[in-house]
Amino acid sequence: MPGVGYEIDFLPVGNGDKSGDAIAVRYGEDGNYKVMVVDGGTKESGQALVDHIKKYYNTTHVDYIVNTHPDADHASGLEVVLEQLTVGEVWVHRPWEHADEIRRWFKDGRITDQSLAEGLKDLLSYAYRLEEFAAKKGVPVYEPFTGARIGDFYVLSPTLDWYLELVPQFNKTPAAKTATSADALKSYGARALEKMVS
Q1: Residue 36: closest CA among 65, 9, 76, 7
Q2: pTM across the whole model
Q3: 175 within 8 A of 118, measured Cβ to Cβ
């Protein structure tokens, strides 16, 4: 199709071994562009991302925000985008919404659906804050699982089932049933478990 194009910009995030990217995508045709942001880095890089979109894309609107995972260096910059620009949709995994399905994967049988959901919101707070901020602004939030369509793009992975099996393996969650070492009990996840069941 003549006149249809795309632009992908990778903005550096962090330094050295901890470096990554915040990704801005503009696609479509003159007068009908869509803008997607994939990860936002830290708050500082989030500001650089907002400035980039305003300057080079000549807009204050982002159609789609996508968060690949809830670490601070991927999610916190997206808060800046949500705060300073208008946004059409937010795509972020929300494991707390699936606590009833995930709970069986954890070692400690004292965990309830509610305590697990609240614990996941706390432990994955950067992602949860995106959901809260979007709700305050009336922006719909969706989860990016296999087959979902984000604008003209399709999510290839993960499936919902696979993701739910992965959540207990995160280093920020309580010990999974497969964990047996004494080191696992001393982990951050074990300390968080104590907080969840108390």
Answers
A1: 65
A2: 0.82
A3: no
